[in-house]
Amino acid sequence: MQDIRVQKTFEALFALEDIREIFRGTLPTGLNETEEQEFQKKISALKKVINELESGTGKPEVFRLAGNLPVRDREESFINIQPIQAAGKLTVDARKALIAYGDGYSTCDSCKKPFRLDKITKPGIADFHSELADFLNMDEARVVPGARRGFQAVASSLLEKGDIALVSSLSHYTEFLSVENAGGIVKEVPLNENNIITAEATAEKIEAIIRETGKTPKIMMMDHFDYQLANEHEIKEISKVSHQYDIPLLYNGAYTVGVMPVDGKDLGADFVIGSGHKSMASAAPSGVLATTEEWAPVVFRTTQMKGDLTERKFGIKEVEMLGCTLMGGTLFSMMASFPAVKERVKHWDEEVDKSNYLMDRLLSISGSKVLSEYPRKHALSKIDTTDSFDTVAKSHPKRGYYLSDELSKRGIVGLFPGATRAWKLSTYGLSRDRVKYLGDSLVEIAEKYGLEVR
Predict the structure, then answer these.
(1) Region for 369 from its dihedrals, namely left if φ exceeds 0, alpha if ψ lies in -120 to 50, beta otherwise
(2) Per the confidence metrics, is the pTM higher than 0.90?
(3) H/E element holding 41?
């Protein structure tokens, strides 16, 4: 369904990069005769693409980059409902920042003593760290290469071999790995009949652990909204239970930080972790780890190591951060998107409303169910179409692949090919027109194959 103008937009961007490359190789005094000729040649090529873009004519000229990378137009040519991609789509300013700051160590143009990322003032990386902490109502923050590296930093700081970490029964696998990497042991809090982690169940699990092991967990890692069902768990009440047992709480905000308001101190969090590439409109890998004055000296401890021969010391380099963390385009995409991120969290109710609209449309198809808690409190949902779309798959020549094919024909992507039973989708960031189109498309497909629509 690609509009040729999408293709020509990419080709124009690529043509501008070709022109830019000329300036990257010339002397500061300007272009020489050969370079000027090449410049004029590239300008002519760009004008041709611009003319085709304006008129909506021409044919695709660039199919792959560097020989094997297809041009990715998923966000320009389709409605993308893939849950892990929805809130990570870059803002226009972030895309511009990647163009300007995509070079490796672009953060380091003006790096001066004390030679640490969060201390750089030009551009305002130091200020950005302070703004992140304020945004989450925490005392200190660091950018990290994804939420998983935040989990790892906290786990390695607080856990020793054999220590227990308490997690949700719906926790992400990276929480398990971070505990295992630190030599710890995972214990899970069970779900109730509604697939919710409650404060009561958390307290009961802690008591059971103490009875069985004689030890209290050293850390609690708890999702606000989990990644499997996007159900809301009793995070504020759980934090109170956690602190009654003197267990620090790690708030997993991979699906909240950057899309909805998060007040770490109000929630009772000792650590708040967010994902830049999942929920903050940033390039991957990126994320944030924020903490309180009490725990900052622990998780952001500085190196004490000294070389035995050279007696070298590395001063204020932070051990768990391995010194600096995001050194280029990832960080600047995060910074460039931040004003928009701060604004969009104020409109979370609108995102939830769109999610519920789509779920209502889906439920109008007989046999369809919402596996997540309903009404929805999040833009991500898990649904069950075993008794609706999957009944068609049983006799369709393409089996379960027919549904993703039907959606793709309508310009909708993000459903795993072959999925017709339990599957996830997200409406985050979609306009109301797009959400309505999505709902209409699901109903249209159902009617096409004779499913009852109420």
Answers:
(1) beta
(2) yes
(3) helix 33-55
* pLDDT tier, 139 (very low <50, low <70, confident <90, very high otherwise): very high
CB count within 10 Å of CB 224 equals 25
**Which residue is associated with the tokens 């972790």?**
273
Tokens of 395: 């006799």
Task: Say whether pLDDT at 4 is over 90.
Answer: yes
- 365, β-bridge pairs: 453
Give the chain's domains with CATH numbers. Answer: 4-77 (no CATH), 110-327 (3.40.640.10), 346-448 (3.90.1150.10)
Bridge partners (DSSP) listed for residue 220: 166, 249
Helices (H), 78-120: 92-101
pLDDT at residue 2, as a whole number = 75
pLDDT (average), residues 66-88: 96
- Element (DSSP H or E) covering residue 256: none
Question: Which residues are paired to 185 by β-bridges?
Answer: 164
Q: pLDDT tens digits for 160-177?
A: 999 999 999 999 999 999
User: Alpha-carbon distance 355 to 377, whole Å?
Assistant: 8
| Distance in Å from the first CA to the final CA of the chain | 30
Taking the mean position of all CA atoms in its chain, how far away is CA 296?
A: 24
Give the model's pLDDT for residue 440.
Answer: 98
- What's the confidence (pLDDT) of residue 315? 83
Q: Is the predicted pLDDT of residue 1 greater than 90, yes or no?
A: no
> Which residue type does 348 have?
W
* Residue 122, token pair as written in the block: 């030009």
Q: What is the dihedral of CA 132, 138, 144, 150, to 10 degrees?
A: -150
What type of residue sits at position 123?
A: P
What are φ and ψ of residue 384, in 5° steps? -125, 115
Residue 1, both tokens: 């369904």
- Determine the length of the chain: 454
